[in-house]
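Recap slide: dGTP triphosphohydrolase, sequence and predicted structure.
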Amino acid sequence: MEWENLLKLDRLNDANYPEKKHRPPYVQDADRILFSTPFRRLANKTQVHPLYENDHLHHRLIHSFEVACVGRSLGYEIGTWLADECKYIPNTKIEIIPGLVQAACMAHDIGNPPFGHSGEEAIASWFREKFSTPQGIFQDISNTQRPEFESFEGNAQGFRLLTRTEMYKNNGGMRLTLGSLGAFTKYPVSAFIKQKIDAGKNGDQPCYIGLKKYGVFENDIGTFQRVATELGLLETPVEDSNEQKIGSWWRRHPLAFLMEAADDICYNIMDLEDAYLAGNISFEEATTLLQGLITPPNKAYPDTTPVEIISRYRALAITGGIKACVQAFKDNYASIMNGTYQSALVDSSNKAEEFEKIKNIAAEKIFNAARKTELEVYGRNVVYKTLDGILPLLDELRDKNWNIDNISSYHSQLVRALNFPLSSINNSYDALHCLTDFVSGMTDRYAVKVANMISR
């Protein structure tokens, strides 16, 4: 892969958009994301602790800003290295790299549903139950389309929001730059193709990190293919048993590794701070884990309380994480550029062991905390009630040949009450995506309100 292509600033579906002298395209990308409705909703979406009353704990919006800040720092370090030491890019392009990474980081959670990853799994499990004995609208969904609902993925929903449903609907969406979209896409594969790859793998065969999940819905593959071709991302075709091509997947954009690293740094470190504030871990546990990422400072700090000490350790740990991931990118540069790098930067960095300890504590004490578990069960039931309450509307619309004017008076009321978008639906596949657009777009509290309103 070549940086000349990877840093393209042409806009999706708007290649002739005039560049503003003092507002580079990547700055405009960040602005379009920032002022979008889905981004604003992140202020009331779970990061780790659902429906928590402690205002000092993270929600998705604050997390996204923090990841963008760390991503920008990573981008500056790598951009400067590529220009000054390696001479791979001109100095005039240094600013593009942190700009693209920052925009991608801003959007990295924009497709996540309410209640965090438990909400994601709730949507997926509801669809799996419906597809186990398909009736009504579910009978129309092909085997190619089913996997993306049965394993609903916020990353793919994010790509759909950025390129389809916001601003220029079905015509480029937010029309971000190609470079930002490349940096955003951690998993450049559809659910169907990933399923085929997984089915054909040997048990001990290592999985390319970009195939860990899927990141593009079937009806968005054409859009991503155009982005990938322009950026020069490496394409791998997939064939069926008759050696006929059935699709492709792509190697990651190199900047996607920086976006991922920024997220990994932030959620690992911030989750520790939140866990201490929420009472899930002790002061000693938090400081011991954070110290592993820290280079001791040369000056004294006037810390007076445990909270202040944790806050300082957190800041120093972020700096340590950035330094480690920058070095990991440099050490693995050749394999990143030829598409063979198999890891996340934190996992191959010189702080991998320290990050692993944090992940283990998170799995043991944070994600299994009693209150969090109770609210995840509650959130799952909220998601189920909402999906169950809206499904009859879509089934009736299907029976009425997608004619909105012919649906029942109750369903007409429901559409008005929820402001549920029906105008662009004319088939079952689009109808189910409209359903997931709505449910995944809800905030935690709005989801509770809707579930209470429409459940029987």
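The chain is about 60% helix and 0% strand.
The chain has three domains: 3-254, 263-366, 371-454.
(End of recap.)
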